[in-house]
Each structure stands twice: as C-alpha cells, then as structure tokens.
Amino acid sequence: MRSVLVDKIASVAVQADLGQEIRVSADIPCEEGVLIAVEVLNNKSRYNTIELTSGRMAEVKKGDVVVGALGHRKALFGYSGHLPTQLAPGDIVQLLNLGGVIGICDSINPSHGDPFNCKVLGCVLDFPYLGQRVGVPARVSTEPLKLDVPLDTHGVPVVAIAGTCMNSGKTAAACAIVSRFRHNGLTVDAFKSTGVALRRDILAMEDSGARHIAMFSDFGICATTSKNAPALTRSLLNELSDEKPDAIVFELGDGLLGAYGVEAILRDKEIVKRITAMVLCANDPVGAWGGAKLLREEFGIEPTVISGPATDNQVGIDIIRERSNVAALNAMTSSAELGDLLQASIGLGSRTAKASA
Question: Which domains are present in the chain?
C-alpha cells in the first residue's frame, strides 16, 4: 500500500467520495467497477477531456494521475474495449470514455484519434472499518444489483425515449419533455438505463427540472449489457417511483440495435407494460421509418412521437408523418408542443402550475 496524489477523479467514481490523496494497492481485482489509479502517458488534441465528479469537463494531459473504473465499452461512435483479465502496476491500459471507464481498447473511432494510454499505478483502496487500517478495493458503488427484482411503479406514468443510434437527439428530447412537464406544474424524476458511465445526460435532465436523477452506474455497472439492462431498468423504475413523482422520464442510451441491452429491455414484458409513452429519436427519415417499424414488429410497441435531427425541418417532419404515420416534433424548435403532446398521452392532461401549496 502506498500514497498517491491524484490530479483528476472521473465522474464514474462520484459515489466513492475520494480526496486528492489516496492509497493504492498492487493487488488489482479485474472486476467491473473496481477503481484504479493510472498515469496518462500521451497528449491528445481531440476527445481529450474527462468528466469530473463535479460534472465539469477537464482537459487531460500527459503526466496526469487519474482515478477511473475498470470496465468495457462497445460504442458505435466511440472507442470499444474490454475488461482486462489481469493487471499489475506498470501495465498499460486505455481510457475508453469521458466518464473514466478504463480497459483495453480494441477498436478506435477515427474522429477521436487514438485513446489515452495510461500506466497502471494500483487499485484504489477504501477503508470501511472504523479505526482500522484495513483497506479493501474501492468500487463505483457498493449497492448490489438484484437480477430478479420485481417491478412496481405504483401507477406512475412513464415516458421512455429510445433512439436509432448514439447521438440521435435522445437527451435533447428528454430535457425538453422534463422542462415542459415541470413548467406545467408536474413533479418529474428522470434516469438513464443503458450505455456507458457518464453523468452528463442525467445532469442535463436535472438542469431541465428533474427533481431526482439516477443512472445504471449507481448500481456499480460501468457499461450495460443484455444480461443486466432489464434488471437495472426495473431497479431504477422502482427507486424513482417510490419517490411518488407525477411522471418518470427515462432514456435508453445507445440505439435500438446495439450492445448495451436496449433490445433486452424492450423484450421484457413487465417493463414494456409500464411504459406509458414511447419517444423515438432518429437522425434521418429512413432511420425514423425503420425505427418505428422495428418497435412495432419486433417489440409490439407503438411510438407516440418521433423526434431528433430527422425533424430538424418541415421536410423531414412531413416525410415521417406520411411514411410512418406517427406524430413528429422537434425537441429544439417545438419543445412545448412535444411536452404537451406527451403529457396528454400519459393521461395527465393539461395542468397549470401547481398552486403555491
């Protein structure tokens, strides 16, 4: 065990509540969510920031000591990598995402350049036993995930937002809906159920008016899969519905076809039964048409409205309405209309702001 001074603590470690001086061990369990300290070995001019525990983005430079979490990533428009099977101080790993997930990079995205290479310094230690200097591996979260958790949303209306792929406007739609609901006097909670650990999206939902926010990494998961995504979604729905909001809005990170478990969630009949309205986001009219067809034919879900860049102007909106027979509204230019349509569709109707009670 030795002391290490840290320059940056990634947001994936937000629940660990670490200081700038940490203790590390040479014994590193190669398990998802275990926190490790690394030294950055190269500079980058693109994709060169990290999200801190404060939510701010900070530039990463050669020589920085960073705390992140072991995990994997399978991103369509980013780095993909796997969890190493063994690690020792001095080994080389890569920073896979902005939230601080660390693993072995298998595939790069040309727009991001090569990833940050990092030298492993050791496993971050936690000291849970009062009065004892007995350290245990620190983790993203100590809250266990139960794979067979029953689902009970207490009748709270649920708006789900799915997309054809990454960067299809899902978070923009979520924020527009949350903001409008809040403006109309509703209490809204929000979460993100799939993807790779990064708090930026749920923080944006909080900034838009969500009372409580949550995400899958709260259960120690750095990147979701088809095996854990349904259980995570049930747990998050249970957690937020216990707070008795007027509505819950949640984003399915990644796309309908992807490696993060969106399909598994949409094939879970208990979850789908609780989804009151489905928003589909797409980058283009063909994606909107295909996404609507996939929702209907593969999952038996009728999309309530289509949003995303495909609705950026009237041409796309007209094509979507004609070919998909679904309402189309842009989250940026028609945010109030989008929120009002969904509020009516989940049975809450038109409400004015709640009285000052």
Answer: 2-137 (no CATH), 158-345 (3.40.50.300)
